[in-house]
């Protein structure tokens, strides 16, 4: 028993040494990203509520590191509440009903956001978006997300930036076009399903199939830029026939950070939310934990360390601007170099389309 205790103490000592080493490298590095000096003079502690993961057993060490960083940079300590996703909304409602301080909170569904707004539980952040200090959010977060996040023309959250929107694609099997004398140039000119009437008729007659079988050769689907290239690899001509911009439901069924209406220091809460979306160091601390303790990093891609006491899992779409996150070797995270490549192109493409085709 004595040997086991000594072994545990040695492990703890080693972990602390690694944390201190990482902290020396990370603390203060965010300053270079600022275009202003934040007016933080008084030390404060904020209550922050986020969705954790049941596999986490390295939360205490990660929270300590995050607080070293935020205290040094902002003079702000964070009491981070990692809550299960299954009960998150109910837990937030319970905390608010009990009068507990809820300074910073993640909103991860449209229903949750609507409920919070109906109860006047969130602070209006519009003045922050208009200020010099935080105005960069208007350029660093896609405008489609920001616009869709509004309630009555005002901002009550900071959406976690990610791939937005989708497309309606008209798919046509290129081999069928060649077989029935509909060349690629002709098929590429089609802008609606109705335009394919002659092609479909030729396929139905020539293949001896019923209407129920035509979708294998011609159909309309919703998808992303990545889906488009996958369809083309399967031998389809893929025409974009509509752009679908994000709705409020899309924003909040993704995720966003908000400030509680009762927060006594909304400016300090906004500093933290701003940093989560702008500062890759803080964002990756929250997402992946501490380098060489909770993960290893190679060529910008994280591989988690899953031994007991080191595992730390967070949904990368719940922890800030996805474009500031390291890539993950874990496919279930849904964030790797391939996804990132298409995400930025898709955002720019849809933004440009909306800009040149304004509604109304």
Would you mind describing this structure in some detail?
The chain has about 350 residues and is an alpha/beta fold. Helix content is about 45%, strand content about 15%. It contains 15 helices and eleven strands. The chain has helices at about 1-25, 60-75, 90-95, 110-120, 125-130, 135-140, 145-150, 175-180, 185-190, 195-205, 225-235, 250-255, 265-280, 280-290, 335-355; strands spanning about 45-50, 75-85, 105, 160, 165-175, 220-225, 235-245, 255-260, 295-300, 300-305, 325-330. It has a five-stranded mixed sheet with strand order 2-1-3-8-4. Helix 13 crosses helix 14. Mean pLDDT is about 85; it is low at about 1-35.
Short description:
By secondary structure, this protein is an alpha/beta fold. The protein contains 15 helices and 11 strands. It has helices at 2-26, 59-74, 88-97, 110-118, 126-129, 137-140, 143-148, 174-179, 184-188, 197-207, 225-233, 248-254, 266-278, 280-288, 337-356; strands at 44-51, 76-83, 104-107, 158-159, 166-173, 218-223, 236-244, 256-259, 295-298, 301-304, 327-328.
Q: How are the SSEs ordered, and which strands pair?
A:
Layout: H1 2-26, E1 44-51, H2 59-74, E2 76-83, H3 88-97, E3 104-107, H4 110-118, H5 126-129, H6 137-140, H7 143-148, E4 158-159, E5 166-173, H8 174-179, H9 184-188, H10 197-207, E6 218-223, H11 225-233, E7 236-244, H12 248-254, E8 256-259, H13 266-278, H14 280-288, E9 295-298, E10 301-304, E11 327-328, H15 337-356
Parallel strand pairs: 1-2, 1-3, 10-11
Antiparallel strand pairs: 3-8, 4-8, 5-6, 5-7, 9-10
Helix pairs in contact: 1-2, 4-12, 13-14
